[in-house]
Amino acid sequence: MDGDIQNIKKWIVLYPIYINSKKTLAEGRRINASKACENPTCVEIYDCCSHLKLPCAIESEKAYPRDFMQRGRVRVLLKRDDGSLCNPAITSRKQLMLQVAELVPRHPGRTKKQEPATTSTAGASKSGKGGKKKR
């Protein structure tokens, strides 16, 4: 187990903020906002990396330094010790972030979560009498 922990320390780190479309570049987003996804979680990122056949691990006790209230990060292995790629389609961190950001909205847990949110906001916007006050 000790060998695994040392190997994991050399894997690349993927924080959810890197692919969060709600964050700015100054807050830590690393990809284009149009290609990023809304509020990804570590579990969703982990599942997407597993789907891409990449070895990965969740570190739930770790936090992003600029936003320490959001806990968790994912460690991913792109290249093996001999230098060969784990998934030949993904050669860099940037490609990994773009692939994961594309897969997260289609995550099975996310589609269930998003449906009630869209119906509740639509209902709230219809109710109430808004308007400009006359002087």
From TrEMBL:
One GO MF term: RNA binding
Keyword annotations of the record: Cytoplasm, Nucleus, Ribonucleoprotein, RNA-binding, Signal recognition particle
Compartments it resides in: Cytoplasm; Nucleus, Nucleolus
UniProt cross-references to Pfam families, sorted A to Z: SRP19
GO CC annotation, single: nucleolus
Domain of life: Eukaryota
Composition bias type Low complexity, residue spans: 117-127
Location of the region described as Disordered in the Swiss-Prot/TrEMBL record: 104-135
Family: Belongs to the SRP19 family.
Purpose of the protein: Component of the signal recognition particle (SRP) complex, a ribonucleoprotein complex that mediates the cotranslational targeting of secretory and membrane proteins to the endoplasmic reticulum (ER). Binds directly to 7SL RNA. Mediates binding of SRP54 to the SRP complex.
Subunit-structure text: Component of a signal recognition particle complex that consists of a 7SL RNA molecule of 300 nucleotides and six protein subunits: SRP72, SRP68, SRP54, SRP19, SRP14 and SRP9.
Protein name: Signal recognition particle 19 kDa protein
